[in-house]
Amino acid sequence: MTWVLTILGIVMLVILHELGHFTAAKLVGMRVERFSLFFPPTLLKVKRGETEYAIGALPFGGYVKITGMNPEEIGDLHPDISRRAYYNQPTWKRVVVILAGPAVNILIAFVLFAGVLLVGNLNGAVVLSNLSGHSTTQITDKVAHVKDGTPAAAALRKGDRIVSVEAGRATPQGVVEATRKHLCEGKQVDNCRAKTPVKLTVERDGHVRSLSVYPRYNAEAKRALMGFEFGARPIPVGLGGATSGALAAMWGTLKETVSGLGRALTSSKARGEVHSVIGITEAAQESVAAGAGFGLVFLGFFSLALAILNLFPFLPLDGGHIVWSLAEKLRGKRISVGAMYRYSSVGILLMLFLVINGFSNDIGHLGG
Q1: Cβ of 355: how many Cβ atoms within 10 Å?
Q2: Torsion angle of the four alpha carbons 287, 291, 294, 295, in this order, in degrees rounded to the nearest 10
Q3: Distance set, CA 278 to CA 41, 282, 356 (Å)
Q4: Same structural domain for residues 271 and 349?
Q5: Do 252 and 119 belong together in one domain?
Q6: 50 neighbors 85 (Cβ within 8 angstroms)
Q7: Three-class SS state of 127
Q8: What is the pTM of this model?
Q9: Is the residue at 75 inside a domain?
Q10: Sequence-ordered alpha helix ranges (H) in the chain
Q11: What is the pLDDT of residues 49-64, one digit of tens each?
Q12: b/e map of 333-353 (b: 16 or more CB within 10 Å)?
């Protein structure tokens, strides 16, 4: 069931992106020839008025075909149709139509992020904290998780309220400060047992009790660990807080997406983390399975990433069409399709390289 929800969610993002282009084109009077979900070969099509609606076989996105997006085809059009062709429209209309698709994706991301914060979903708030770099959660004094096989597993239970740690603060930092003082006998080696216990005061089932936990040294953390985690709760926010939190997460996503693409082009390690639609769908399925908060935040992240990638200034991406229109406006005359594609060729090759690399990574992963 989660796979069905995942695919429907991603398909809906594609449909809404293309619907943005479609609606804007209709509103400014352009002629839309085709609205297609996915790419050819065409599996199903139906014509309503002057527009053909289709479903393709290759699930790599979708497209809206507006008459006259290639200036070289305008001369063959009937005058009534040519008048409504994309390339014969004022620059502002062309830019509005192209921006409408990414704008819809940006709006979707904002609504999903803000909605998750507004309803106080913990899982979603944790992920948004990671995206924004600003905490939208608050640590509690209750035990949320006890790791099996650790010192804490023999003493603590999920739901216990930590009253104090070594008569001090019942906080993650208080635990860190306390465990640093508890050393193993002799040399500190991985998994050695501290010679003295950490004293905890715990409330369980309405009763307060004192517990002793002997932490074990962890070489990676460079200190002794007990093996439990404090819980967290979302910080209550109003509409203003949800708005600012969503915008901060969106800004964090923008920076991470752009810098991630830069690293992927310069680092073989980073290229190993690039995914195609296969890996993205798998990650989305895992997010949906982890709960509504994770799933909604992932869809918001995917929607925003879709907008960012589409705004890269290379044809046939949306950003390429915008650059083309603005360049012609500044130049005062038309620029040939060939010139624009020559300008875009480097960017297209780099994007194609990353797409192929992503498929290679995911196929290798599926093959074990």
Answers
A1: 14
A2: 60
A3: 20, 6, 12
A4: yes
A5: yes
A6: no
A7: helix
A8: 0.72
A9: no
A10: 2-27, 79-82, 91-119, 122-132, 172-179, 239-266, 268-271, 277-289, 292-310, 318-331, 337-366
A11: 899 999 988 876 788 9
A12: eeeebeebeebbeebbeebee
The domain boundary, picked from 211, 234, 257, lies at: 234
Last residue of a domain, one of 234, 256, 280: 234
Q: Judge if 161 and 221 occupy the same domain.
A: yes
Beta carbons of 365 and 279 less than 8 angstroms apart: yes
Q: Is the dihedral of CA 234, 238, 242, 248 positive or negative?
A: negative
**β-strands 216-218, 223-225: how paired?**
antiparallel
Tokens standing for residue 91: 């620059």
SS3 of residue 188 by DSSP: coil
Confidence of residue 44 (pLDDT cuts 50, 70, 90): very high
Same domain, 259 and 308: yes
- Residue for token digits 């640093």? 180
289 domain-assigned: yes
Q: Which amino acid is at 79?
A: P
Answer yes or no: is 177 within a domain.
yes
Let me know if residue 93 belongs to a domain.
Answer: yes
My answer on whether 25 and 115 are in the same domain is yes
- Tell which residue, 12, 247, 302, 299, has the closest CA to residue 134: 247
Domain that holds residue 109: 17-29+85-123+248-366
Per-residue pLDDT tens digits for 238-260: 888 889 888 988 888 888 777 76
